[in-house]
């Protein structure tokens, strides 16, 4: 069925009007719980993969930086992001607190319900981190003249913000499919991740793959700026 609103402002207004202001914070608890181990896996594993991909001079190509980010992203997706995002999405859809939402998932769908949409999540996180680390490392090489000068916190902030913008615009279609696959009606609507892609394209057109890109940019860009400033 079509959404009862159009655009970010309409969605915000509809949510507050129908389910109250507090519903804007549904899904916050699983996000907070997963944020620390997710960041640890992402940056730690990215560093390990990069070290194993360096050539004899210790250098990395753009492609290798992408692969290192891809590997870290897929790993964090399967270990942390898939269950956290699934619980978050279902808590938001049902307007349920974290504990009540988790109990409902386990009771009605079993443990597998927590990993619903894992393949789509791996595609999203893998491409996300691949693009993000690739961009940031190339940016860092340019602004530091290949390591000859220090990168200031302000340059790190701008680099992280631009990496967040680049990755969001580059992989928003995967994010849309991931969110659809983790919804409470996904099992009844889609045969799998590829079927979800096909249905969205056939029924809603290519523009649907960029639904929600503006609020996502509003969240990702400043967040990645802060993260990479301290990286």
Summarize the topology.
Elements: H1 7-19, H2 28-53, H3 62-94, H4 98-109, H5 118-143, H6 153-181, H7 186-189, H8 193-204, H9 213-229
Helix pairs in contact: 2-3, 3-4, 3-5, 5-6, 6-8, 6-9
Sheet/helix structural class:
mainly alpha
Large-scale geometry: globular
Most strands sheet: none
Q: What is the N-to-C succession of helices and strands? A: HHHHHHHHH
Helix content: over 70%
What's the end-to-end separation, in Å? 43 Å
Q: Beta-strand percentage?
A: under 5%
Low-confidence parts, pLDDT < 50 over ≥5 residues?
A: none
The average pLDDT is 91
Number of helices: 9
Q: Care to count the β-strands?
A: 0
Oligomer: single chain
CA-atom Rg in angstroms = 19 Å
If you had to describe this structure to a student in words, what would you say it looks like?
This protein is mainly alpha-helical and 231 residues long. Helices cover 74% and strands 0% of the residues. It has nine helices and no strands. The chain starts with 6 loop residues before the first helix and ends with a helix.
């Amino acid at each position: 069925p079509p959404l009862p609103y159009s655009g970010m402002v309409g969605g915000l207004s509809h949510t507050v009007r129908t389910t109250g202001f507090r519903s804007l914070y549904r899904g916050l608890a699983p996000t907070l719980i997963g944020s620390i181990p997710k960041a640890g896996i992402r940056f730690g594993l990215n560093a390990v993969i990069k070290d194993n991909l360096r050539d004899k001079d210790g250098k990395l190509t753009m492609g290798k930086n992408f692969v290192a980010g891809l590997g870290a992203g897929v790993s964090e997706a399967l270990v942390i992001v898939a269950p956290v995002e699934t619980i978050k999405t279902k808590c938001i859809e049902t307007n349920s607190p974290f504990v009540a939402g988790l109990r409902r998932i386990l009771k009605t769908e079993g443990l597998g319900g927590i990993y619903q949409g894992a393949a789509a999540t791996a595609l999203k996180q893998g491409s996300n981190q691949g693009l993000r680390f690739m961009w940031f490392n190339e940016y860092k090489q340019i602004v530091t003249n290949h390591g000859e000068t220090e990168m200031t916190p302000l340059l790190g902030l701008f680099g992280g913000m631009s990496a967040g913008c680049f990755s969001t615009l580059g992989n928003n279609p995967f994010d849309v499919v991931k969110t659809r696959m983790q919804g409470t009606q996904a099992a009844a609507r889609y045969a799998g991740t590829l079927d979800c892609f096909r249905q969205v394209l056939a029924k809603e057109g290519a523009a649907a793959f960029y639904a929600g890109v503006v609020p996502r940019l509003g969240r990702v860009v400043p967040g990645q700026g802060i993260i990479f400033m301290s990286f």
